[in-house]
Design brief:
The complex is a heterodimer of chains A (about 240) and B (about 325). Chain A is mainly α and about 240 residues long. Chain A contains 15 helices and no strands. The chains are: A mainly alpha (about 240), B alpha/beta (about 325).
Chain lengths: ~240, ~325
């Protein structure tokens, strides 16, 4: 546990050691603002909720989360520090979990800085704050899912740019699989069970469910097992590729 | 304390380490020699648990790296090749991170970090980012990291590579200081290092152990071992003198090389196991040669090294064709 904490602290501090973290948080906040107010029509809707804010999170995460996760392992492999890390008395799983948690903590810090929008909507009207809370929770879960993919992909290469691009492509697949266009394509020929399977793989399906304010066990299990599977794959990839 | 049992590592069809077995006891400093790509680093990576051997096992204080990796890693201090460290951290932060991960907390951690910093003379740079440090300091950060928890086993991959002569000297002194209570493995391709720090040397090439013995035994393999180096000031013909030296009953061969104005250097190699210094001395006296220098050579390690490592690659070359 101490080892996980030690790596976690180092990783988290590493984000803030360079201006990148601050730039990232600013970009994230500006983009959430743009999406909420312009594309989402926050004022025009005349409703006291944060749906236009949360609706764009999957698309924001698609590009921003791989940018957070790309360095997790690729940087260690490039700098050779992975040899140092993996010869310290820790298991690969501990290292994977610690790094993932650090990236997740960083994401939650960025997400927490969106609080002015919550204040705004409370100032303007009388929203259901419980729904907003569950939406934040769902958004964080989804960010974890993106990060788990990104972390695993980061371990496959020394090149952060490649890690970024591949992670974006894979995450895009997991968003798209819930899209009506994609589902319609499957509906035309595949049996319903396959359509359901494809749809249930999507971040969107589960995120919109939580966003409505309903925390269904199935959605929790989806995100938990999704993160678990990708981190498990991450451990295997690190063990396989660390010495390359 | 270190028991290597039939360690083998394949990378695809390429066998990097081929059935290596050896043992290192407490108080020993083992020099791991070999040309680049011989399998030195791969062997060290297997001992420290970074890569898994294809076959065989490494036992550290009786525990197998395969069965009890965590407990073995706790006992080992490892300096990987190139001394990697997190460039954005300062040595102070970095060493505290290592201390924490090694399970030291609070005052205990401070003591360990301060001791390590003192031992490798890092005081002047502890608050500068590692990225900005010179190669010598980076190497010392790596060393500090390896010795921080005062490990029983110390494994260092080319600890003096790229250092200036003063820094090399410091690192060697440090290794010698620690040698008594630890089992140390040092890989190097600098041959003087073997005599300077090691109590034993192993030469490997193409993944196989070709020599295992003390540094003295290694230099004894040299044809120049116990040879007499004689510098004469003379106007005589070198070949004539060489012929005279050759008449000595214990001489096996004589070589000469011009060494400046009227100076000729002779190497008189003795037959195996005999000393030839007296004979040469008497011969010089009876011939009234002007002797400028006369001493017995220890043997040239690079010659031995070349001899041992290339003869094996020749053998391989024959097999391939």
């Amino acid at each position: 546990m101490n080892m996980i904490l030690a790596i976690f602290k180092r990783e988290l501090r590493n984000y803030f050691a360079t201006p990148v973290a601050y730039v990232f948080i600013v970009v994230f906040l500006v983009l959430t603002g743009v999406f909420t107010f312009y594309l989402g029509g926050f004022y025009e809707r005349g409703q006291a909720d944060l749906q236009p804010f949360f609706n764009y999170h999957p698309w924001l995460y698609l590009f921003l989360i791989p940018a957070i996760s790309m360095r997790l392992w690729a940087e260690e492999r490039k700098a050779g520090t992975i040899e140092l890390l993996m010869t310290l008395p820790i298991t690969t799983s501990q290292a994977v979990i610690a790094k993932f948690l650090a990236a997740w903590a960083f994401t939650s810090i960025a997400l927490a800085f969106t609080f002015p929008i919550w204040i705004t909507v409370n100032y303007l009207g009388d929203p259901d704050n419980l729904i907003i809370l569950t939406s934040y929770f769902g958004s964080l879960l989804m960010a974890g899912a993106f990060l788990a993919v990104g972390s695993c992909i980061s371990a496959t290469t020394r090149n952060q740019v490649i890690a970024f691009i591949i992670a974006v492509v894979i995450c895009f697949g997991f968003i798209l699989s819930g899209f009506p266009m994609v589902l319609d394509f499957f509906k035309s020929w595949a049996p319903q069970i396959i359509v359901n399977a494809v749809s249930s793989l999507s971040f969107l399906t589960h995120f919109t469910a939580i966003e409505r304010g309903v925390i269904d066990l199935r959605d929790l299990i989806y995100f938990a097992s999704f993160i678990g599977c990708w981190l498990f794959a991450n451990v295997i990839v690190v063990d396989m590729k660390k010495a390359d | 304390m270190i028991n290597i049992e039939k360690l083998t590592k394949d990378f695809g069809p390429f066998r990097a380490v081929d059935d290596i077995s050896f043992e290192v006891k407490k108080g020993e400093v083992l020099g791991f020699l070999g040309p680049n790509g011989a399998g030195k680093s791969t062997t060290m990576k297997m001992i420290t648990g970074f890569i898994t051997p294809t076959k065989g096992d490494a036992k550290i204080c009786g525990e197998s790296i395969l069965d009890a990796p965590i407990s073995v890693k706790q006992k080992i201090g490892y300096l990987p090749e190139g001394a990697p460290a997190y460039p954005d951290m300062t040595p102070f932060e970095f060493l505290h991170f290592i201390a924490e991960i090694r399970g030291f907390t609070g005052e205990d951690a401070n003591v360990k970090v301060n001791n390590a910093i003192k031992k490798v003379n890092l005081e002047s740079v502890i608050h500068k980012p590692i990225d900005n440090l010179s190669k010598g300091f980076k190497r010392r950060v790596g060393l500090a990291q390896a010795i921080l928890h005062d490990p029983e086993i110390l494994i260092m991959d080319e600890p003096t590579d790229g250092l200036d002569p003063n820094q090399k000297h410091e690192v060697r002194e440090l290794i010698k200081q620690m040698a008594k209570e630890k089992a140390i493995v040092v890989s190097t391709h600098i041959l003087e290092e073997v005599h300077a720090v090691c109590s034993r040397a192993i030469i490997i090439a193409q993944g196989k152990i070709l020599f295992d013995g003390t540094p003295d035994e290694l230099s004894a393999r040299s044809s120049f071992h116990n040879a007499v180096n004689l510098l004469l000031e003379t106007k005589d013909d070198a070949l004539a003198i060489e012929a005279k030296l050759n008449t000595l009953s214990h001489a096996s061969s004589v070589e000469h090389a011009a060494a400046g104005d009227n100076l000729i250097r002779f190497f008189v190699k003795p037959k195996k196991g005999v000393s030839i210094l007296n004979d040469v001395n008497e011969l010089a006296a009876s011939n009234h040669w002007t002797v400028k220098e006369l001493h017995v050579m220890e043997g040239q390690l690079d010659e031995v090294f070349r001899d041992i490592t290339t003869s094996s690659s020749d053998a391989k070359g024959v097999q391939l064709t």
